[in-house]
Specification:
105 residues; alpha/beta; five-stranded parallel beta sheet; 5 helices; 39% helix; Rhodanese-like domain-containing protein; Rhodanese-like_dom_sf; GlpE_sulfurtransferase
């Protein structure tokens, strides 16, 4: 599984590289803090996988990186995705390493 660090993601976003952000947390978590992108809770992934692009890099995000890793395993093994990156350390890593003003939970 390929991973991307919070700093690497920040750099890619600053360069405006085309990518899709997919947050697999629950709606209440997304409301607390998020990086934008699309909210597809892990439990909804089988029904909503068609929203995930195959033509650009896709970064999957959760709280600490575990649920997003599960999502990547599902998408690669069951649906053949090859363009997925796991945000290492999740949104918590972003908040502690990139944006200290972001709410943590």
């Amino acid at each position: 599984m390929q991973e991307i660090t919070a700093q690497e993601l920040k750099d890619r976003l600053a360069r405006q590289n085309e990518m899709q952000l997919v947050d697999v947390r629950e709606p209440f978590e997304f409301e607390l803090c998020n990086l934008g992108g699309e909210l597809i809770p892990l439990g909804e992934l089988p029904k909503q996988a068609n929203r995930i692009r195959r033509d650009v890099p896709v970064v999957l995000i959760c709280h600490h990186g575990f649920r997003s890793a599960q999502a990547i395993n599902y998408l690669t093994q069951r649906l053949g995705y090859e363009n997925l990156l796991n945000l290492k350390g999740g949104i918590h890593a972003w908040a502690t390493q990139v944006d200290p003003t972001m709410r943590v939970y």
